[in-house]
Amino acid sequence: MPTAFLALIRKDLRLFLADPRAVMMSVVAPIAIASFFGYIFGGGAGNGDNSRIPVLLSDLDQSALSREIVNRMASDPALDVKPSAPAEAQEAVRKGKATAAFVIPRNFGPDAVRAFLAGGPKPQLQMMFDPSHGAETRMLQGMLMAAVMQAAGKRMSGGRELTAPFEVQSEAVTSKRGDAYNGYAHAFGGMGIQFLLMVGVEVGVGLLLRRQQGVWKRMRAAPLSKAMLLGSRVASSAITSMGTLIILFGFARVVFGVRIQGSMAGFIGVCLGFSLMTAAFGLLIASLGKTPEATRGVAILATLMMVMLGGAWVPSFIFPRWLQTLTVIIPTRWAMDGLDAVTWRGLGFSAVALPIALLFGCALLFAAVAVTRFRWEAD
Amino acid sequence: MLEVSGLRKSYGEVAAVAGVSFRAGKGETIGLLGPNGAGKTTTVSMIAGLVRPDAGEVRIAGRALRGDTDPAKRSMGLVPQDIGLYEEMSARENLHLFGALYGMEGAQLKLAMDEALDLVGLKDRSREPVKGFSGGMKRRLNLAAAVLHGPDLLLLDEPTVGVDPQSRNAIFENLEALKKRGKTLLYTTHYMEEAERLCDRLVIIDHGKIIADDTLQALNRMVPARNLLTVEFEDGAGNVPRAQDVAQLPGVESAEVQGASARIAVRNLAEDSAGILQWLVQQGYRVQHLSSERASLETVFLTLTGRSLRD
Question: Taking the model in full, what pTM does it have?
């Protein structure tokens, strides 16, 4: 009965739009949080000034060699080098204001030359670091080593610059050469997924609440099948979810330059698959839950786990290898990988065909369990 | 029109409905009367297809009701006890939705909406959101949503709960209009006045079982003391008749004297009261106050179950 089906969908959309503040929040909140995460994770131009590593240097030697080392470190665009006394430098690292501090001791220059040429005792170059920045500390050690070797080599070769016997040609492998990685693409996908799952939770809890009301009795008294009653709810929820994703990515396109650099059909497929999956997830919640109050808490916990393990907060490539393997069973991971693939990675439809199929399959599975398990009798 | 046979429903160990059977003919108004928790709503829910019975059958116009999409459900309209409306939507939007659930659309739906709104007197407020309506208006719209698709049988589950007397009266007028149109009404209530005013026949239910099923007149005849005449006498020794003397009078079924008052059960208040009064005066008893009490469903219920309808 298409008349009834369409009327039920129209009713759900009408009720959704009846609360402009709720509609605004369902769009504004993910935009605000995604903007924040996108900015933190590199923004649209890779690493800006704000992401330079703060380093303090205490040059107690003040020799030509030590000054050369300081200059080389300071000229590195990845570092924000400032001079400091050793005690203040240590305090700054302790307070987290600097990632690391280096102290070049007195007589470092002569001692280093002697150690290099005659095999004398090596001078100690002190490094103090913030243990919460493990990866950056190892990088800084390498950069310091390179600066010292280049400065010492130049002095010992009569002013000729010693350089490495090779050059590294680095390229960000994104959709196409020259396109920078846009951190907002992942952030908007991730936040979209999180908020749509929350909408799914509300769909489920809303159904449990409706079951306690007279409208539910009226619906059940009409000659409508269970599949139509639940199917219309899935359809209306999927429409609002799809609309939300389109608005989110539209905003990201206009404000942060996020583009669908891969398959547009793939993008639509991932969004549609996820929208259906999240709507069916809502029904699943309603079918397994008993009271709205108890169900909401459990459902939110399950949602946050799915969001976290699906890589919506931080990309899954940051996870340990075992966790990356384990999380392939999480539907949100398929959605995130799919959205990453068609946005900044610029991949074609074939790259997202499997995630799309899995999302649709998951939606069908959830819906089937929901129809079977749903308690139809009014409370 | 409606035939209910052997309906049973238990929730765990509790039998909410324990073998309910009754019939409602075309155009008849049946009152399903009982105190809270008697099994009225569960019975109506099973008839409407909301609750699956453990046993028994519901037949509408001779056809057994089977499954969610049974076309026979079109013959029924349900007025749920809770308001079954979307508060954020207007009256017209609500009716449009509920009409569409029965496959109505276009001009047919518009006409039905206008008629339903006319019936309940809400046509001029039809474009306003329901959340702005008074309790009585919501109840009337609740009724309109149930009659919209033109059902022959209306299931009314306590449709006047929580409304003011004026709105209750308006709903009653609506129901009387529907009755005149030949609709069959199954009216669930624990208000005896409502049942007395509206119903042709009463089905009294208690603890999930039917304890009486008859017309109001027949039910009244089931009660030993149908009408009561209470006479209070002026104080003074010898100014109170003996109960056995009063009991001998024509039309008196029983008499009880306590202090300075006598409670006299009579067959017919209008016919028998005059003779009793005349006898009292002739005997020299000085009557200070006289009151009469007609037998009511409350009395009937009390007699049948030993407890009040509103327990």
Answer: 0.72
